[in-house]
Specification:
Residues 57-66 have a biased composition (Basic and acidic residues). It is an enzyme of class 3 (hydrolase). Keywords: Hydrolase, Lipid degradation, Lipid metabolism. Pfam families: PAF-AH_p_II (PF03403). By secondary structure, the chain is of the alpha/beta class. It folds into 3 domains: 6-52 and 59-77 and 379-520, no CATH class; 89-136 and 188-336 and 347-360, no CATH class; 141-176, no CATH class. The protein is 23% helix and 21% strand. It contains 11 helices and 22 strands. An 11-stranded mixed beta sheet has the order 9-4-6-11-10-15-16-17-18-22-19, with helices on both faces. The protein has a 3-stranded mixed beta sheet with strand order 1-2-3, with no helix packed on it. It has a two-stranded antiparallel ribbon with strand order 5-14. Helix 1 packs across helix 2 (161-175) and helix 4 (282-307) packs across helix 5 (342-353). It is globular, with a radius of gyration of 23 Å. The chain starts with 11 loop residues before the first strand and ends with a strand. Residues 1-65, 70-75 and 481-506 have low confidence and may be disordered.
Length: 520
């Protein structure tokens, strides 16, 4: 597609070296727009067409743990975390000043409150905990009936007795009793006084990370990533957004009563102030991102107050006396923003809002179209890891250009070969590999989580406590119509049909499960 001449080598990095380059050497650009050679970036292995392919292949940084071909169907537990610390988890719901977003009305409820109203924030904290003799693991799919009804509404199916007769047994067979390997309400561990390999604690503090889920998901559906980062020394706060993008969420009121926020379908809304009603969900999504930004900033403020020794007015019933003083060891000065899909877009929007000095932004398959038109600045280092499904879309490069130009602290873009949009969540860790392949996943589900955890760790591994360090990659993918990148795979043909060429072939962005630097 036609692009500005300056974007022909559009990869922006935080690297600062500036060696002399021979003519024709591909370049990337740093935050101060100085060019560096791709050969200066650490690589895991060499691509087939590299001149150095005859050199011995370096060893992989980490061997992938074995994962059952039956997913979690037999074990009913997600894979163990691989970091040096055991992981604890607890839920908090904290009241915040009431805010509303959007002026729409539900067509079937014209007398209801307009727009999205938020007066509490619900989140799950994943954190390094003290070792437990008999850890009590956490249910991955709580409120099954309520959530299934929400998923039916998302699929535009009325949650009546007939649909429930099909959905309930199917969901129960797949996820009922499934847990993830974190200890419920375990005490927060004190940071070690000495360095620990693969740990990110510094100066006696655990760093803070915020995670924003994608549309159609909830706070626990990314437990693999959040738990892995917690096992490496992060306190990870996973929000459950009350913006109508979750299948269903329960709100606890001050008087003990509860209400439910369901999925909001854009076609069910009426916007009184608009002369013409929206033809898609774009306007609704913009309001939902505004809501997410407010929720994320409120949670960061709550965590700051907790780290200062303040006990928050929690709406959820705590079964034990929580030692809030122990949470003074959480460093909330430079949080890391992370998110998937719409959550990745929210993380970018929060960075641009300049309310805090964030350490960096890590976005998985960010829904960039939800932020257009983009005229803001990204002042913090940005890491984007995309699935192959998203990268083969024809509009990604066009959408990404304004974000790349606005990233003053640098941005890195990578793609995981064979991955699909949902593969950043826990879903494919639960389903058998055979079913995953039928949906289009062309690599092991565990490989995707391993790659994003490793890349996130490398990106944040700055000796000065910052971010933007170069991520080690397996190969380079250039945005060119090179026939040797073409391949036809049955699963991908089904999923990527709208991206197909006339010859019916599909572009493979690197080898399945490997991390490729996206250079264009």
């Amino acid at each position: 597609m036609p692009m500005p001449a300056t974007s022909s080598d559009m990869f922006i990095s935080s690297a600062n070296s500036t060696p002399a380059l021979p003519h024709g050497t591909p370049k990337i650009f740093s935050s101060n727009r100085q060019s560096v050679s791709l050969t200066d970036i650490p690589r895991l292995s060499c691509s087939a067409d590299d001149d150095s392919s005859s050199d011995p292949e370096p060893p992989k940084i980490q061997e992938l743990p074995k994962h059952s071909p039956f997913g979690a169907l037999l074990s009913r537990t997600l894979p163990k975390y691989t970091g040096p610390f055991p992981v604890g988890v607890r839920d908090l719901e904290i009241p915040i000043p009431r805010q509303t977003f959007g002026s729409f009305k539900h067509k079937n409820m014209p007398h209801s409150v307009a727009g999205i109203a938020v007066d509490t924030v619900l989140f799950t904290i994943f954190y390094p905990c003290e070792t437990q003799d008999k850890p009590k693991h956490v249910a991955w799919f709580p409120r099954m009936g309520q959530t299934i009804d929400g998923l039916l509404k998302m699929a535009k199916r009325t949650p009546n007795v007939w649909n429930r007769m099909i959905a309930y047994p199917a969901a129960a067979a797949i996820v009922h009793g499934t847990t993830f390997p974190a200890s419920k309400c375990a005490p927060l561990a004190m940071p070690p006084s000495t360095p620990v390999p693969s740990s990110f604690h510094q100066d006696g503090k655990w760093p803070l990370m915020i995670f924003s889920h994608g549309a159609g998901c909830s706070r626990l559906m990314y437990s693999a990533f959040c738990g892995e980062m917690a096992s490496r020394g992060f306190v990870v706060v996973a929000l459950e957004h009350r913006d109508g993008t979750s299948p269903s969420s329960t709100i606890a009121a001050a008087d003990g009563s509860k209400s439910i926020v369901d999925w909001i379908q854009w076609s069910d809304l009426h916007w009184p102030e608009l002369a013409e009603q929206p033809m898609d969900d774009s306007i609704l999504r913009r309001e939902q991102i505004k809501c997410r930004v407010a929720e994320i900033e409120a949670v960061i403020d709550i965590m700051k107050r907790i780290s200062e020794g303040e006990e928050p007015p929690c709406r959820l019933q705590l079964n034990e006396n929580l030692d809030w003083a122990a949470w003074r060891c959480v460093d909330t000065t430079t949080p890391v923003l992370t998110g998937h899909s719409l959550g990745g877009s929210a993380a970018l929007a929060v960075s641009a809002n300049l309310k805090c000095d964030y350490r960096g932004v890590v976005a998985f398959d960010p829904a960039l179209q939800r932020l257009m038109p983009w005229d803001s600045t990204l002042p913090h280092p940005v890491l984007v890891i995309n699935s192959e499904e998203v990268m083969v879309r024809h509009d990604f490069r066009q959408l990404f250009v304004p974000f790349a130009h606005s990233a003053t602290a640098g941005v890195q873009v990578y793609v995981i070969g064979g991955s699909t949009h949902p593969s950043f969540s826990d879903v494919f860790l639960i389903l058998p590999h055979t079913i995953n392949k039928l949906t289009g996943l062309g690599c092991p589900a565990r490989a995707v989580i391993d790659r994003v955890v490793r890349a996130t760790g490398e990106f944040l591994a700055d000796d000065a406590g910052g971010a933007g360090a170069q991520v080690a990659y397996d190969e380079v993918f250039r945005d060119a119509d090179d026939m040797q990148w073409k391949m036809s795979i049955k699963g991908r043909r089904r999923l990527f049909r709208r991206h197909s060429k006339e010859d019916g072939m599909y572009r493979a962005l690197g080898k399945p499960g490997e991390l490729a630097l996206y250079h264009f």
